[in-house]
Fold each of these.
Amino acid sequence: MNSEELKRQAAARALEYVQSGMKLGLGTGSTARHFVELLGARVRDGLEVIGVPTSETTRHDAIRCGIRLTTLDEVDRLDLTVDGADEIDPALNLIKGGGGALLREKIVAAASDRMIVIADDTKWVETLGRFPLPIEVIPFGLGATQRAIEKAFVACGVAGELVVRKAKDGHVFVTDGGHWIVDAHLGRIGDAPGLAQSLGLIPGVVEHGLFIGLASVAMLAGSQGIRVVERQ
Ligand SMILES: O=C[C@H](O)[C@H](O)[C@H](O)COP(=O)(O)O
């Protein structure tokens, strides 16, 4: 089975948790797109849900799939968010933002009663950090922000190169919120909650891709089937 089929399987399993009347957070990325497409098929069969997309890309996908949309200004809480991840550790802490959607993804996940992470099992790691950690920053004062990030790294016992993300056309990648992303190549993050806290205090850092304590369940699709891991 190829990785797209595995992602679709994980997405299909998450769909079992969706009930009519739910308000849903709709994630971003290749795995979340499978969920949006499968959800769209159920909506066409009569399922009544309303969604909040976590990116402009997902908003367009959801509209194409016939899913009714709302915003976090119009609704208070969401019942469930289903999203992908770049890395998932045994505490269900995540690295997200490989596609640049981390800011809206975190706002939506934090406004949800439950977050299900869907992925193929290559995303499962013992310790976060092999995947470069996305840090969303304000372009103004980038040098000062980067120096503050490096200080936070030293305090948290990690080190690695910071690279301003470029789009495929060679220009700086700009997020849906108009910010830039610096990818931190750390290799291993021993204390992800501690690093998350330190990064959150830096002026100029809008958000970072460490999702701590947000995911309640992970659905990991592999050649042996789907493993469901609940947060302890
Ligand atoms: O910004 C992008 C998101 O955090 C994605 O959910 C994450 O990068 C995983 O994407 P994919 O399912 O394509 O591996």
Amino acid sequence: MSETPVVPRGQFSISLDDNDNVSAITSSINKLSTEDKESTHPAAAVTAVKPGTSTDLTEKDSKPEPEREVEVRLADLQADPNSPLYSAKTFEELGLHANLLKGVYDMGFTKPSKIQERALPLLLANPPRNMIGQSQSGTGKTAAFVLTMLSRVDYDLNQPQALCLAPSRELARQIMDVIQQMGKYTPMKAVFAIKDSVGKGETIDAHIVVGTPGTVSDLLRKRSLSLRSMKLFVLDEADNMLDQQGLGDQSLRVKNSIPKDCQVVLFSATFPEKVRTFANRFAPQANEIRLKATELTVDGIKQFYMDCKSVEHKVEVLAELYSLMTIGQSIIFVKTRHTAERIAARMTKDGHSVVYLHGKLESEQRDKVMDDFRDGKIKVLITTNVIARGIDIMQVNLVINYDIPTDGNDRPDPETYLHRIGRTGRFGRTGASVNFTHDEESYEKMKAIQDTLGCDIIKVPTDDWEDARKILKKALR
Ligand SMILES: Nc1ncnc2c1ncn2[C@@H]1O[C@H](COP(=O)(O)OP(=O)(O)OP(=O)(O)O)[C@@H](O)[C@H]1O
């Protein structure tokens, strides 16, 4: 439906740090170097966003930042070539249909971010080419692939033509919302692939399908979903979706059912080396947009740690933190369901409005928890890695790593760390993350993550609360 720009055939590999305009990049020959420029990040924004209300009655620590200040800071970032939110172009210049532009502007977007400016012309070019796209958390990857889905489908054909898989129910639901909002001026029909989304013997006739690998595989098995007319297959959080210890097999099975000429698009904030090879096989000859290892963290997120004396002391420190500080909305990440429930009980006893969410809750419960948290009815969400990725709630200004993230082999997990802390500091907002360590092992794990990412994690005392409050208050304002 849209007039897509014609980009010369060939495969491009560009760095988000490269500030030349896209047309210059796309007209040059195949792989450009991704490592040819030193990155310079803008100084972190000094004022913090605090849009929500507080968990207690005092307003001593953080007040909602006036929307105007947020707008001014965002405008500054979007005009700074070193920011991932920068773009030299307007949405009009990206070849989008007028109906999509209307949807985008209705959402309050004024200018594209760097990933949107770089990725969209490549994604929309004809003939379609695969894409492996990387950009920091909260920089607008969703809009890049949603606008591509909405541009690629033929609305006169009532068959599924674009499929997006995400690792969690919560993220898939969120992507559905973005599709509905961006596509509201198009005749688009989208369906959320959940267990009972289609009746027995019926088949899906929506243009766009969103789901998790599990639910989509189920629909395929039941022949409720045909992938025959698929033009675009998107994996959000692709490194996670391709991880062979996790969702990789299921994603591959779905991929094997799509037509050979279907455009495959992989997006994530992280692409660790161990999945790169598989990603390149999954999306052959893809245009690539990559970040350097030093570019992964978001400047607006200040990182801290609190060194607790023992596991028991962690609960005390957490309780103290929430009783002394006024915090907008926050997410506390823990390793196990059991810990989530235990901490929730303790904080509830202390009078805080908290909820927990993990994979063993019923779907309806999970939806209600997310809706309540999104609406600001609940201020504190305690959860496992189930929502570590992709969840976008602007008002979250604090993330706590109650347990340091580790992988299946109990090794420090820098990718999960980045995704977890990326639940705050979204699209130019500021936020803070606090890691809890409680022994040498947990400290070493955090240190390993810090070394891998080359970031600063600042110590906050647990024995001088006045000092602790001062340090954190600065980051939360
Ligand atoms: N061009 C834009 N102008 C203003 N806001 C935008 C723009 N693009 C995206 N946003 C907003 O920025 C927020 C973050 O976007 P999004 O969730 O797509 O980030 P992401 O890059 O997918 O992050 P993650 O890696 O955590 O999944 C969303 O609230 C989105 O509506």
Amino acid sequence: MRKPLVMGNWKLNGTKESVTALVNALKAPADKAAAKVDVAVCAPAVFIGMVEDLASGSKLQWGSEDCDVHTKGAFTGENSPTMLREFGCTYAIVGHSERREYHKESNECVAAKYKAAQENVLIPVLCVGESEAEFDAGRTMDIVRAELKAVIDLCGIESFKNAVIAYEPIWAIGTGKTATPEIAEKVHADIRAYLASFDADVAAGVRILYGGSCNAKTAPDLFKQPDIDGGLVGGASLKAPDFTAIIEAAEANA
Ligand SMILES: O=C[C@H](O)COP(=O)(O)O
């Protein structure tokens, strides 16, 4: 039985004031949901220490939006998995489409980050997904399989025992164009089938989140799908009432 996970990805948003208010407002819903649903927020690195101070003692978990492959050294601007772990992160998102696009991160680079996160006791949240042109051309699974295969080649299928996958169709991110529950479920099931071709038990156990305009309105039907194990939520995770409604939708289907 897979425990759903609802994770916020704040991206490049927040102030000291808004982070304080948001984390304080999410502790009670996270505590209430904890028996059935894991709840986490992934914050810009500069806010992670604040999130740790505010959320410690509650069931709200936190993580980073990226992590470097190195643990220390002359890598200006980076954040190492050991530093993130020291500030209490449970998760590290790797391979978000915005990193792949704006920072030119290849499948191999993302796989290396996934490996570094896992080696340093962070749970990687591996983002996969296709562009609109690739979706229109029917190439979704070609893209997603290649993104998964790079990780399998470097870390092995067993590594997915301690990882999360987030399927995020790029055309649905921040656009208001959510994938229909049927489209999303088909891709999630195809991802699970692909992983099962390597190891059926690992495939059955891995949590696969949906991301892309997941909000209070769309989450209930998405979360009813058998292969959708929660959401990676961008815009709607910045407002406590909206994110709370998404947590409640996951609880209702857990
Ligand atoms: O990581 C989150 C995704 O990019 C989804 O963002 P969004 O919910 O604003 O569409």
Amino acid sequence: MTTNPRPDRAQQQSLRAFLKRQSKPAAVWLKLSIALGTFNALLMIAGAYLLAQTIHNVMFEGNNLAQVTHLLWPLAGIILLRAVFLALSERLSAYAALKIKSAMRQTLLNKLSLLGPSYIEQHGQGATLNTLHNGVEALHDYYAKYLPGAAYSALIPLAILVVIFPTDYKAGLIFLLTAPLIPFFMILVGSKAEALNQKRWKQLAVLGNYFFDRVQGLTQLKLFNATRTELKQIAKISDDFRHATLDVLKIAFLSSFALEFLATISVALVAVIIGFRLFFGTLDFATGFVVLLLAPEFYLPLRQLGSHYHARLQGISAAADMVAILNAPLPSDENASVTTSSPENNLTLNAINSISITDLNFIYPDSNEGIKNINLTLPNKGLIAVVGSSGSGKSTLFDCLLGFHPEVINHLSINEQSLSTTDITYLQNNIAWIPQKATLFYDTIAANIKLAKPTATQQELEHAAKQAGVLEFINTLPDGFNTLIGEQGEGLSGGQKQRIALARAFIKQAPVLVLDEPTAHLDSQTEQLIQDAINEYAKNNLVLVIAHRLNTVKHASNIIVMHDGKIAEQGHFETLAAQNGAFANLLKTAKQGVAHA
Ligand SMILES: Nc1ncnc2c1ncn2[C@@H]1O[C@H](COP(=O)(O)OP(=O)(O)OP(=O)(O)O)[C@@H](O)[C@H]1O
């Protein structure tokens, strides 16, 4: 897993600019929320004047209730309006944050699907999940609280100063001189808090990766009796995270305390000075009371900004991870710009007649292994099997073909048209793929199968299930197709899961079906059933299959034999078996394996 270094000041600026750009889809709601909040503050100022005047009239002018009703009614109206504006303003900013978060999740998912599974593997599934979930969630308070708070901290004190100065310039001066203390202190603790927050964020990513891996491999951990050691390790990482969180909280509490203290001292200073001036008669009550009412309101937005500063730090830390994903280069970007600029490369195909791989070399960045010098032309129908010993490069070849390694997409072509990263979705849309362990989702069986074709009718659903040899089983379930299956298909056997995944592939009726040993988990009767269905499918479509058991490839129209990352030979079963080459060796090893067993 790679972590992003702590952003320096210039990077922080660009992260803030990034966060600002992301607010565009909801800018109107954010502005409306801030406008309502500001209007609310103006009403608060007017309310303070009315209240002070009412009390002055009752206490010093001897007015009775009837004489001050003209002041009390507007005051009641203001209180009511303020409650409405406050609720509306908060709702609008929360709505804006929701919109921004959902747009951001979509953007990140789109980019991740372009980057392909290898990017996620390299950066860690847990860390990526953390960015997609916790990271995006961390933006909520940034947009819903910090941004409006930052606007109020400038607008509201300014509005109060504008009305206070003409009323009592001495009080205005006290406000003006004490106000900068709060932002100054915030900046002072800010950089320390920022460093700690970054550290905490990175530790959360480590924890996410670690947990994700361990939860996935829980069965193995249990079998190897390694749960105790792992628990210790998890406890250690959790403890590091706890320390990092406590460090952040310490700074947050300390700065909150200091900000509250500064604000309270400032209000107290104003109160004492007003008190003396009232005592010595150099100030009238109404003015003094207005200043006293407005003093806490003057410091309130600054204090709140202090408490939302944490949201700012979280938002910026999370943004760094998002920018890293969004800026991750698509390795074949250069090719993409070249190929899409030429009109013949914009795929407008009615059908796939052939798929070719030309001079394909793919080496994993962290090892010297991979596949080399691959040249291959696949027809549009027939069963093509890829065989080879473990580590010979079969899965890597398939991953390249499926577009999971964007840097080599330009070595693929359909109907002799070279592909670019932008075209890969065309190929992917035309491929149905079943890996060795297909992923099923927490949903009904019907939804899991229809994932490949959401518009499928009940008839198509049943047909696909029948083709995959799973219809009978589904019909025995009390809820049939509406049976809810757990995450990863819990509640089903390995073979049942695989057949549901097959049904998903069949329903798509994709011109290219790619399978990784589809019958590995099945009993011989079901295996034959599925083999027949696959053979039938291969009559009109291209079926590419990774075969680990050589007896399953007897009927293949072409067998591609991989050895040491290269295509060693290809041909029909009988021809290859008769040669004294890699395939014959594989057959020999398989026979020996059976004999030993
Ligand atoms: N993510 C990876 N990072 C680094 N090297 C890898 C990675 N995946 C595979 N390799 C290496 O690339 C080579 C080809 O691996 P690949 O998984 O394609 O073989 P395979 O024929 O599919 O093997 P198997 O039948 O065991 O699944 C191997 O030497 C393997 O060690």
